[in-house]
Design brief:
350 residues; alpha/beta; 5-stranded mixed beta sheet; 15 helices; 5 strands
């Protein structure tokens, strides 16, 4: 069999699909379930930003009698359908798109430059020529044999395609710079979706309070909010407000307070202080302030950072240190850190 790497512009690809020169072979597809609007919108935004999308795999077949050729989509049905539907004005980019110029717009409502960027975008394709069906199937079996096993975050990302998955994906994209700037995550951790896990755990705490989270608990959150996610706007505002506050506290960047388990507790404390969460009120009463004064808060947080760096087993901050060095993700230690951060945000002096 022969494999040829080629490219189609979006315009040429959509025209070929409209002429049935490129068709879907449902025998190859793992699922014929249509992607939700958020997933389709994310793909279109990726294209409009000029970022790469996973390549498509087509199987070229030539009829000996008619000598006509067509191509079957072996892998990429949902991407192809989303691209074609947007080309045909059948759906809008969501209002949560990062680029304000394309939010809530169909293709026909984009400005001329964005329309051109969409039509000219180059889709990478691997084309199987002179191959049998058995050979194509074996290609994918062999490719999958070398795939690195997915961690729980990647499994959830692959399994769920609903509102919550795309919400977490969107927030993670927007906060990538914060995670890197503060030292919470390195690039490799972001690739393996450690940020998605942190954001998911925080959302779980907004709804269920502070607890020891497991894969099953986080999976359940994705499942619960797969179709309907009424808290989306509230959770979005809580997360972005808290992380933007942390972004501005450069004095604690790259300190122990920026470890993911610390950030988990700090974000909870920031959002609860500004806007009380019922499930967190039993641990600390919120003063419900309009804003947090950096000049007042930063010395207290710096004090906690220094205590964590010194790692002293005794003294004023002993329980904070212990909760930050042993079993850091269990409920009891999460509660201790949360209380200390709430105190740091609301006390004049630590």
């Amino acid at each position: 069999m022969n494999k040829t790497a080629t490219q189609f512009t979006v315009a040429d690809y959509c025209k070929a699909m409209a002429r049935n020169e490129i068709i879907v072979n449902k025998d190859y597809q793992r699922s014929d379930k249509v992607w939700p609007p958020a997933a389709r919108s994310y793909l279109i935004e990726t294209i409009l930003k000029g970022f790469p999308v996973p390549k498509l795999y087509l199987y070229q077949i030539t009829d000996v009698k008619s000598r006509e050729t067509h191509k079957e989509i072996v892998d990429g049905q949902q991407r192809s359908a989303a691209i074609l539907d947007f080309y045909n004005d059948k759906f809008k980019v969501t209002k949560l798109a990062e680029n304000e110029d394309i939010r809530n717009r169909r293709y026909s409502e984009l400005d001329g430059d964005d329309q051109q960027a969409f039509l000219d975008y180059a889709i990478d394709v691997d084309l199987f020529v002179s191959a049998t069906t058995a050979e194509v199937i074996e290609v994918f079996r062999r490719m999958n044999s070398y795939t690195v096993p997915l961690n729980p975050e990647e499994q959830r990302h692959a399994c769920y395609q609903g509102k919550f998955k795309w919400f977490i994906n969107d927030v993670a994209d927007k906060l990538e710079g914060v995670f890197l700037q503060t030292g919470t995550f390195k690039e490799k951790q972001l690739v393996r979706m450690a940020d998605n896990k942190l954001l998911t755990e925080l959302c779980d705490s907004f709804r269920n309070g502070i607890r020891t989270t497991t894969k099953e608990i986080l999976d359940a959150l994705y499942k619960r909010y797969d179709s309907v996610f009424p808290e989306q706007e509230d959770y979005y505002n809580r997360l972005t407000t808290a992380f933007n506050f942390i972004r501005n506290m450069e004095a604690i960047h790259e300190t122990p307070l920026m470890k993911p388990y610390m950030v988990y507790s700090l974000v909870q404390a920031v959002t609860h202080t500004l806007k009380p969460l019922r499930k967190l009120s039993k641990y600390s009463k919120s003063p419900k302030v309009r804003y947090l004064d950096l000049d007042s808060v930063l010395p207290n947080l710096t004090t906690l950072a220094q205590a964590a760096e010194q790692d002293e087993a005794e003294g004023k901050f002993a329980d904070f240190i212990k909760a930050s060095t042993e079993k850091t993700n269990v409920r009891e230690n999460r509660i201790v850190r949360f209380k200390w951060f709430c105190k740091a945000l609301t006390s004049e002096h630590m």
